[in-house]
Amino acid sequence: MSVRPMLADDTTTWRASAREWLRSGNSLPFLLLAPSIFLMLAVIAYPMLTGFYYGFTSGSLLKFGKFVGFDNYIRLLQSTDFLHALWFSFIFAAFNVIGCFALGLGLALLLNQEVPFRGFFRVALLLPWIVPSIVSIVSWRWMMADQHALFNQIIGLFGGSPVYFLSDEHWAIAAVIAIKIWRSFPFMMLSLLAALQGIDRSLYEAAALDGASRWNQFRYVTMPQLRNISIVLCLLMTIWTVNDFDTPWLLTQGGPANATENLVLLAYRYTFGRNDVGLGSAVSFVTLAILMVLVVILLRRQRER
Amino acid sequence: MAYPAPSSRKRWTLFWLLVVITIIVNLPIILMVMNSFQTTEQLVQRTTILPRDLTVANYRYLNERTHFWTFLWNSFTVSGVSTITSAAVAALAGYALSRFRGRLITGYSRALFVVQMFPIILALIPLFMLFRTLGLINSPLSVIILYTVVHLPFATWMARAFFDTIPRELEDAALVDGCSRFGAFVRIVLPLSGPGLAAIGIFSFLFSYNEFFVANVFLRDQDAMTLPVGITMFMQQYSTDWGSLMAAATVTVIPTFILFLGIQKWITYGAVSGGVKG
Amino acid sequence: MNWFGNAPHRGRARALACLAAAALVSLSPLSAQAQEPVKLNFWDMIWGPPEYIDSAKDLVAQFNKEHPDIQVEYRSVPWNNWYQTFVTAISSGTAPDLSTGAGYQAVQLYDQGAIRPIDDVVEELKKDGELADFMPNTVDTLRYDDHYVALPWGIDIRVWFYRKDLLEQAGVKVPTTWDELRAAAKATTKDGRYGVVGSGDTGGSHFLYNALLNNGGGLFTADRKLDFKNERNVEAFEALAGMVADGSVSPASTGYNSDDRRAAFNRGQAAFTLDGPGLIAQAGEQAANIGVVPPLAGMHGDKGTIFWVNNIMVYEQTKHPEQTKTFLKWWSKNQLPLWTKGNSGQLPTRSSIAADDYFKKDAARAYVLEHYVPVGKTTATNAAGIFPALNDLEGEGAMQAFAQELWQGKPVGPIVDTAEARLKSVLKE
Q1: Could you tell me if C195 and C330 lie in one domain?
Q2: Do the beta carbons of residue B156 and residue B143 sit within 8 Å?
């Protein structure tokens, strides 16, 4: 019969200790993270679990399917479409990361100099990022679509014969990568510029006093200072490129003959084109798994150094 | 790294180099602006690259016959609010990552990576059902929440990097004066973080302003649509009103361009710097 | 372009509607017990240029005025990711009461339990003698599983167009058979111009459907099994490949989308293309240079082309089936302004609407209505009526990829095999 008072006692102590915990410094990290943890649980965790489950079923978008175990994953590994999309995603990410990093770094170095109207250029070079992709990519299409388009007129000036960029597998792959680089370099440029401006100027002064050439200043001062941020930026860009839908979809819809179809387009095609949610989810989770492995490896290496 | 200050000749050489680069890089956008002064009919029939017989018909059409200004206003509200929310949430989380260590922090940091990698296409239908029960379909809140989450990892890393540059000694002094840890954050660290937060805001804004995929699912009503979704109303099943689309894109870009010219000096605070791990 | 004409008119209509509503409310002594009007959601795809949406809204306003107890809310749905739009809405319980949709949407959604069959509507139309007003082949195309899953409203069809100027320059006559088309394409290929321009998108796959149906082929057997590699189909693919081998097909075709293809044709860069009946109306000042090729005789004398019966469907989720039926019947009967004011690119399914002067004045459209529509066939051929897998077949992209490879000039044998394998996996055979 003495349970009740005990319970009340428990509650008060629980409340008191909670209050104390909240007041103490220990709770602060949790409180600081609470809003974002809540958002992440609500918006990401729940859909992720349902999506993971779908990967093991044979349903369509409106009908619940049967549980089919690993069937979808087995079908994927046997499909040439999937292997091609995997390969293209890899090529797409590798070339884009290298390309937009090089372009972004070059422009960031230029914009880090004292140039008249520097502020204007900083913003003008951001434009590819600001323009809605649906329109900027159409503009690109019109520059390369046929024998009368701008690029072919330029090729014609040099006596070359017209290139049908979007009709040939190899050219189409090159075009998708080039336009992705064009769309992503502003982010690299901006981030690297910020990092460049954060480098302590006295480091350069010391190097200059030691008689280091401009190249050596770049190599031994700038590059090491940019190393960490570069790894992070490239990692992020890899993730974004692998998950990019707009560029290949708006430029080629994955064509010609699926040459420019990446894993996201494949997931989209399976889910909405073929109405096979299980297979689509499986593609997404394989993508996620590959990215996770990649991130873990890269971050480990970064920590080791 | 330009020491001593470069000669004016060198500066102007760089200037012209940048002019050429800017023009080449923005060529598709320059063509877009020029094409916005052509009707779709003219665009389709033109054999030259340069436009002829300029017309403002597309702009008049946007103004008089479409919900363009609603779309633009929605875009600004959605990006503006999600910029503020993600900067706020990221500032709190970034501060935690910068100042504390422990299992919670490590776990959180890993979760951020998963969020960053998560293909949003997978989440669309479950999220749609969730938001419907909350009555958020066709409400700007739905996309604001999503943008906040999607940008959270990057914004948090940026905030963390910025807080890393603010010396701890300042807070320690406040703690000695009897301030709580949170009080020190609010009174000492935040006031110093204006530029960093502004940089986070710029990135968040850029991420949200052009987002199509998410907005397309959740904003189905013409009164709720943001610009990237709204302009798909110019597309029929097998043909598209390119002239109006180009004009819409041009008007979309101008306010952002001007806004950024005004705040571009804050951009330089936007480094994520090294450690994104816990 | 008539961009500024309608606005004041619309305002007036709305004011009138308000007045009428106000008058009704104040006059009726029963208004106190009168029920709230039933609200219906009607989602309409964008079936034409911008004025289409205005004309459809006006029409809805007119209905609302005539039926104070039913208030229909109109929403136009962009084509971009339309399937996603409907599926997310249905799966979350926010489907409209009724919507328009392309070809196979109704039957596919029906198969997943989302569509309410309209057998009762068809029955009533039959009783009223209105069913005979629909063109042959339209209502029954939408019959699946012994139910009518939707009511036809518009026809989309693919026909061959030619450039009068280019044919004249090359001194060739308008072809009447496939062999003549191939010869004419070859003759008009010169000076950087090509005989035929195709595309690599969905519109590109229409060339394939057109060719095989024109040759008396079909994708399916009568019992809905894939029959991709039958003799007639392969012959048709080889005929197209032959034109590519002749060098008569623009090499840009693979990378073109339908907009690019139409633009190239309108600029006079190719003599022939396959497109919808609205092409000439959208060609502006080039319209006079463009003509419709008569239905070609295939290699065995067959005629035929691909067509889709676009339709209106009612959703299972509707809470007011009776009122929805009322609106559906009214809409079907009164939709003439969608063409006369809205300039929709579709062809009407009702003879009474097709008989309007609007279609008589447009010679090309009248020609297509008279000569092409009767030979129109669906992708379901040779099965009767449409069935759910057709949506996957068109949406999945196997036929687009096939068209792209065909335009690239790859040998027909292997690409037919690839396409067949992909289609089989789509259709889960």
Answers
A1: no
A2: no
- Per the domain annotation, does C61 fall within a domain? yes
Confirm or reject contact between C94 and chain A (CB < 8 A): no
Q: Which domain holds residue C251?
A: 159-275+397-426
- Say whether both C110 and C127 belong to one domain: yes
Pairing outcome for strands C270-275 and C70-77: unpaired
CA-based nearest distance B121→chain A, Å:
8
- How far A171 CA sits from the closest chain C CA (Å)? 11
Do C165 and C257 reside in the same domain of the chain?
yes
Q: Which residues of A touch B256 (CB under 8 A)?
A: 130
Nearest neighbour of A255 by CB, restricted to C395, C396, C401:
C401
**Residue contact A172–C255, C-beta within 8 A:** yes
Nearest residue in A to B2, CA atom: A113
Residues C129 and C185 in one domain: no
DSSP for B234-260, written as a single string: GB-SS-B-HHHHHHHHHHHHHHHHHHH
CA distance B237 to chain A (A): 15
Report how far residue B19's alpha carbon sits from residue A121's, in angstroms, rounded to the nearest whole number.
8
Cβ distance of C397 and A172 shorter than 8 Å:
no
Any domain includes C32:
no
* Distance between CA atoms of residues B88 and B117, nearest Å: 22
Distance CA B171, CA A268 (A): 50
Instruction: Tell me the pTM.
Output: 0.87
Of the candidates B44, B217, B233, which has its C-beta nearest C76's C-beta?
B233
Provide the residue-wise pLDDT of chain A in tens; the chain has 305 residues: 334 444 445 556 777 777 776 666 677 888 888 888 888 888 888 888 888 888 898 877 777 778 888 888 998 988 888 999 999 999 999 999 999 999 999 999 999 888 888 889 988 998 998 888 888 898 898 888 888 888 888 898 898 888 999 999 999 999 999 999 999 999 999 888 888 887 878 888 888 888 888 888 888 888 888 888 888 889 889 999 998 988 998 899 887 989 999 999 999 888 888 888 888 889 989 998 998 888 888 777 776 65
- Are the CB atoms for B162 and B198 separated by under 8 Å? no
What tokens were used for C347? Answer: 């062809």
Which residue type does C372 have? Y
Q: Which chain A residues are closer than 8 Å to B1 by Cβ?
A: 112, 199, 204, 214, 217-218, 221-222
The reply to whether C72 and C48 lie within a common domain is: yes
- Any residues with CB less than 8 A from the CB of A112 and at least 6 apart, and which? A193, A196, A197, B1, B2
- CATH number for domain A71-304, candidates 3.40.30.10, 3.40.50.2300, 1.10.10.60, 1.10.3720.10: 1.10.3720.10
Residue spans of the domains in chain A: they are 71-304
Q: Using CB atoms, pick whichever of A145, A147, A256 lies closest to residue C408.
A: A256
Nearest-angstrom CA–CA distance, C117 and C415: 39
What whole-number distance in Å separates Cα of residue C24 and Cα of residue C21?
A: 5
Closest CA to B203 of B156, B255, B258, B270: B270
Q: Who's near B210: CB < 8 A, 6+ residues apart?
A: A129, A130, A131, A132, A133, B228
Residues within 8 A of A (CB atoms), B 173-202 only: 180-182, 199
How many A×B Cβ pairs under 8 Å?
270
Q: Three-class SS of residue B97? A: helix
